[in-house]
């Protein structure tokens, strides 16, 4: 990994699924996620190639050269969708969206006409990985950045992708774009993001994919210890790092917005619902109601992915009708803490045509 803010040695493993991806397990059409008697360990060895101003890895920053392939269902990919929108890079880096489910081979472009990505000409994201690495041995994960001209994957290093969108693509940011990784806060931010990753982002997976009672209970306790810490931290500050949104908020949001819909029940993270944690619930609603967050959130894709793909946890494949989503638009009161989402900047404009979430997928009442 090229950044330490999202991984620890204890979180390295060989689960075969990477971020959110299709593994190589042959026991199931969709892949197995739980190993009996063991705790969950995430494989965090991603393709470390970077897109940079100086092009030192062979991939320079260049508008129109790359395509971000993401799944609205996946929290790791959702980060990149949000950051791309907040920074106004929609006209600079194109975006392809996969369907919410995948089989053991790959994410697929089943939402596009004919099931083919209109830019890459691929049916499966796997094709972009194999175009560069014919014997690629690991899971096919999202997000992935693909070079349009060659159809080859450049990187799937999801924490570095979003940081580089901030740090390397600055010349192409929209006017009024926020500074999501402010230099003066980076040391503290890295510590906060590290804890959010290990204890919350990945913590819910350690609960859901636990293969023993002992590993589940340890993961459960770690998760809610961290959520209690976040309740306290956010009680007197509007955002994780103070008065404005940063990358740290993006990373926490994508787990919180999935909590009641998926993690509370499906992953057995059931001490409290998000809606029963007053500070985090208000904080999450504040973000949801901010352009770039709620307008990139697709609850139908989220629920379909987890409840259909994880068939060893939910063998019936039944997708719950709930929860009631109307609370996401209720007043949050967080503005009383001061600050503003974009500081001296401005919110992003309307979602581009063709990138809007289907309103039927987020029925808010």
UniProtKB/TrEMBL annotation:
<dbReference type="InterPro" id="IPR036249">
    <property type="entry name" value="Thioredoxin-like_sf"/>
</dbReference>
<feature type="active site" description="Nucleophile">
    <location>
        <position position="74"/>
    </location>
</feature>
<dbReference type="InterPro" id="IPR004045">
    <property type="entry name" value="Glutathione_S-Trfase_N"/>
</dbReference>
<feature type="site" description="Lowers pKa of active site Cys">
    <location>
        <position position="263"/>
    </location>
</feature>
<feature type="binding site">
    <location>
        <position position="107"/>
    </location>
    <ligand>
        <name>glutathione</name>
    </ligand>
</feature>
<feature type="region of interest" description="Disordered">
    <location>
        <begin position="1"/>
        <end position="26"/>
    </location>
</feature>
<dbReference type="Pfam" id="PF13410">
    <property type="entry name" value="GST_C_2"/>
</dbReference>
<dbReference type="InterPro" id="IPR010987">
    <property type="entry name" value="Glutathione-S-Trfase_C-like"/>
</dbReference>
<protein>
    <submittedName>
        <fullName>Glutathione S-transferase family protein</fullName>
    </submittedName>
</protein>
<dbReference type="Pfam" id="PF13409">
    <property type="entry name" value="GST_N_2"/>
</dbReference>
<feature type="active site" description="Proton donor/acceptor">
    <location>
        <position position="205"/>
    </location>
</feature>
<dbReference type="GO" id="GO:0005737">
    <property type="term" value="C:cytoplasm"/>
</dbReference>
<dbReference type="InterPro" id="IPR036282">
    <property type="entry name" value="Glutathione-S-Trfase_C_sf"/>
</dbReference>
<feature type="compositionally biased region" description="Low complexity">
    <location>
        <begin position="1"/>
        <end position="11"/>
    </location>
</feature>
<feature type="site" description="Lowers pKa of active site Cys">
    <location>
        <position position="306"/>
    </location>
</feature>
<feature type="region of interest" description="Disordered">
    <location>
        <begin position="324"/>
        <end position="365"/>
    </location>
</feature>
<dbReference type="GO" id="GO:0004364">
    <property type="term" value="F:glutathione transferase activity"/>
</dbReference>
<dbReference type="InterPro" id="IPR040079">
    <property type="entry name" value="Glutathione_S-Trfase"/>
</dbReference>
<dbReference type="InterPro" id="IPR047047">
    <property type="entry name" value="GST_Omega-like_C"/>
</dbReference>
<dbReference type="InterPro" id="IPR016639">
    <property type="entry name" value="GST_Omega/GSH"/>
</dbReference>
<keyword id="KW-0808">Transferase</keyword>
<feature type="domain" description="GST C-terminal">
    <location>
        <begin position="182"/>
        <end position="306"/>
    </location>
</feature>
């Amino acid at each position: 990994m090229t950044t330490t803010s999202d991984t620890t040695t204890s979180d390295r493993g060989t689960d075969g699924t990477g971020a959110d991806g299709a593994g190589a397990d042959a026991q199931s059409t969709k892949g197995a996620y739980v190993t009996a008697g063991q705790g969950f360990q995430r494989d965090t060895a991603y393709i470390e190639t970077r897109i940079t101003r100086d092009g030192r890895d062979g991939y320079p920053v260049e508008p129109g050269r790359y395509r971000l392939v993401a799944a609205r269902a996946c929290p790791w990919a959702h980060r990149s969708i949000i950051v791309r929108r907040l920074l106004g890079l929609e006209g600079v880096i194109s975006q392809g969206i996969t369907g919410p489910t995948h089989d053991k081979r790959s994410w697929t472009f089943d939402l596009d006409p004919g099931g083919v990505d209109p830019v890459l000409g691929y049916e499966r994201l796997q094709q972009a990985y194999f175009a560069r690495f014919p014997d690629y041995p690991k899971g096919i994960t999202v997000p992935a950045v693909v070079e349009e001209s060659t159809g080859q994957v450049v990187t799937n290093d999801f924490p570095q992708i979003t940081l580089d969108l901030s740090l390397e693509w600055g010349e192409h940011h929209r006017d009024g774009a926020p500074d999501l990784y402010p230099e003066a806060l980076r040391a503290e931010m890295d510590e906060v993001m590290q804890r959010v990753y290990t204890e919350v982002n990945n913590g819910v997976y350690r609960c859901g994919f636990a293969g023993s009672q002992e590993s589940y209970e340890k993961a459960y306790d770690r998760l809610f210890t961290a959520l209690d810490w976040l309740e306290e931290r956010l009680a007197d500050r509007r955002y994780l790092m103070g008065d404005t949104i940063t990358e740290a908020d993006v990373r926490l949001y994508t787990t919180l917005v999935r909590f009641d819909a998926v993690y509370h029940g499906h992953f057995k993270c059931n001490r409290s619902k998000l809606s029963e944690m007053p500070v985090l619930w208000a904080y999450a609603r504040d973000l949801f109601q901010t352009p770039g967050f709620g307008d990139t959130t697709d609850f139908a894709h989220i629920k379909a992915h987890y409840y259909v793909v994880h068939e060893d946890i939910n063998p019936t494949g039944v997708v719950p009708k709930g929860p009631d989503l109307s609370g996401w638009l209720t007043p949050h009161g967080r503005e009383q803490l001061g600050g503003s989402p974009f500081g001296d900047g401005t919110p992003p404009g309307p979602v581009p045509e063709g990138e809007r979430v289907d309103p039927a997928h987020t029925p808010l009442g």
